[in-house]
């Protein structure tokens, strides 16, 4: 799934938690898709990710915090997963951090955007390393 290019510099927040866990845009996208699809497999199909990667991400999120982020119901008709109240709070906190960070950095990001060479074409695709989810 190709993301559209932003028209200005922006922040992508990746929280590195003191217990070794993390939470970032990919986790948020998965949670939102599970909310929409009501299943991990449905979310994996919609995002174009393997079921295993999505399941491992859900497992890691649920083990990172004292309360589960996503409740799973194997074999349940009408959906196999839903966001817990704590998961909803986690999403709200993350979005708040993202919003505050973006607002704080707006002037600096605008200055960086003005300094860009719009003719720049990357010669090689930047591949982000996979996070160890196990």
UniProtKB/TrEMBL annotation:
SUPFAM superfamilies (alphabetical): Winged helix' DNA-binding domain
Domain of life (superkingdom): Bacteria
Identification of the protein by name: Putative transcriptional regulator, ModE family
Originating species: Beijerinckia indica subsp. indica (strain ATCC 9039 / DSM 1715 / NCIMB 8712)
Lineage of producing organism: Bacteria, Pseudomonadati, Pseudomonadota, Alphaproteobacteria, Hyphomicrobiales
């Amino acid at each position: 799934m190709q993301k559209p290019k932003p028209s200005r510099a922006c922040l992508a927040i990746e929280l590195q938690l003191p217990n070794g866990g993390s939470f970032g845009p990919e986790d948020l996208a998965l949670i939102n898709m599970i909310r929409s699809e009501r299943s991990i497999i449905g979310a994996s199909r919609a995002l174009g990710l393997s079921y295993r990667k999505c399941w491992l991400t859900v497992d890691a999120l649920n083990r990172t915090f004292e309360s589960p982020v996503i409740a799973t119901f194997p074999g349940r008709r009408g959906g196999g997963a839903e966001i817990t109240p704590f998961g909803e709070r986690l999403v709200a906190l993350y979005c708040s951090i993202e919003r505050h960070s973006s607002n704080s950095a707006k002037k600096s990001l605008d200055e960086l955007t003005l300094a860009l060479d719009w003719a720049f074409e990357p010669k090689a695709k930047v591949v982000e390393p996979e996070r160890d989810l196990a």
